[in-house]
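A quick aside before the break. I want you to see a complete sequence-to-structure record at least once, exactly as it would be stored in a machine-readable document. Don't worry about memorizing anything.
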Amino acid sequence: MEKIRRQRNLKIVATLGPASDTKEMMRALFLAGADVFRLNMSHGSQEEIAGRHARIREVEKELGRPICILADLQGPKLRCGVFANGPEMLEEGATFRFDLDPAEGDATRVCLPHPEIFAALVEGSVLLVNDGKIKLRVTERSDSHAVTTVEVGGEISNRKGVNVPDVVLPLAALSPKDRSDLEFVCELGVDWLALSFVQRPEDVTEARTLARGRAAILSKIEKPAAVQAYSEILEVSDGIMVARGDLGVELPVQELPPIQKRLVRGARAAGKPVIVATQMLESMITAPVPTRAEVSDVAAAIYEGADAVMLSAESAAGDYPVEAVTTMDKVARSVEGDQFYRQVIEASRVAQRLSVADAMTAAAREVAETVKIQAICCFSQTGTTALLAARERPRVPIIALTPDINTARRLCLSWGLHCVQVETVNRFKMAVLSGAKVARDYGFSSEVQQIIVMAGVPFNTPGSTNIMRVALCNEKAIYEGWDEE
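That is the input. The structure line, written in C-alpha cells, reads:
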C-alpha cells in the first residue's frame, strides 16, 4: 500500500453532501487533499449521516491513513413565520411588526415564534432578515411583539432567518435536535463536534458534559457576543472555527478581516486548532476555477497561520468538488513555499513557556532550525505533545505517533501534523525506533539523516513531555548509540 503524505502543513476540511456522497467520491476527495470530512447536521437525516460516516471509515481502512470526521451541529435557528400571499416587499421607512400570532403574515406583520427574542430586545435594537439583506430597527417592544422601522428594505418570504446582532439572547446553544444529534454522532464515533451560535463559555461546557469525552469540542465564532467573550470561550474549547457567514451578517463586513486575524492569533497562542470557513472558494460551486479574490482570501488565512480552511457547498453540493479540494491544496503549497510565509509565521509566533512541555517543544523547534533535522517525531497518548509542537510552527515536518487511533484522527485537524497509529511502547528507545521507522517509511528521512524524537516518561501519562533525543534514522545507529539500557 502506498504511503500517503501531504506536501503541505495546512489542513483542508471538506463538507460532504449530495455531490460527495459516494465512497468513490470521498476517496477521490481524500486523495486530492481533504484531511477532514465535515458532516453538516443541518442537512440530511441521522440515517444518511450514519451512511456517510461508515463510508469514510471504509476509505480510511482501504488507504491506511487516519481520517478526521467533524460533525457540525445545526444550533438554534431563528426564523419568521409564513405569508398569506407569498413574498412581500418591505419598503424603506415603513413600519413592520413581529409578534407571536400564528396567523399568516402580510406586508405589515408576521409571526416570530421566539418569545425569548422579544424578552431580550430593547428600543433601538437591530433585527436582520434574510442573511442581513433587510435591516429593521426596534421602535417599540413588549414580551409578545416588536414594532420596527425598515432601514434597509427588501423581499421577505416564508421562514426567513432572523439575526439579532446587538443582543445576547437567552437561548441555549443546543436545541432539542442538537442534543439528539450530539448523542447520535458521539455514538457513531466522530472526532470533533462543532457548536453553532456559541455566545458564552457555558454553551461549550454544556456540550462537553453531554459529549463525555467521546469527541473534542470546536466552538464556531459567528456571533458578536462570542467575539466579545472570545478569551473565555477559547479557554474551554478544544478548537475554534471562524465562521464568517453569520459573523459577516451580524457585524459590518469591514470588521471581519481584523477579527479573523485576532481569532486565529488567539487560537495559535493557545495551541488549539483554528479553522477559517465560509465562502472561501464559493464560485467553484458552479465554475471549475476560482476567482482571484477567493484565492487571495485562502492565501490570507494560510499566511495568518490557520490550521485549516474549509469548503462548504463547494464540496457538498457543487459541480466541481475534487477540483475545489485540488485548488486548496495547490494554493497552500504555493503559499507555504514562499519565503515571506516563514517570515510572517515566525513574526507572529507567541512564546509560551509555562510548563516543561512548552519548553521542550520550543527547544525541539530551535534545535531543528539550528541542526539539519528532517522531522520532529512526537510520541503521545493524548496528543498534547503534538499540539504543542504544532503551535511552534517549525520549519520541518511534525510526525504525531500514537497508539490510540482516536487521537490520531483528532490530530489530523491540526497544522503540520502527519498522524500515524503505532504500537504501544513503554521504553523511550522503542519510541525512537518507532519514530525512525515511520520517518523512513513515509519519506521524511533517510537512514543517514537525523530526526528529533519527543515523549513523556513514564509513558501513557498525559502532559508528561520531558525527554527529547536527536537520532540518526536507522536502527543500528540507535542501538549502538544507546547507553541507558
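Two observations worth writing down. The domain at 88-163 is CATH 2.40.33.10 (M1 Pyruvate Kinase; Domain 3). The chain has three domains: 11-75+173-338, 88-163, 356-480. We'll return to this after the break.
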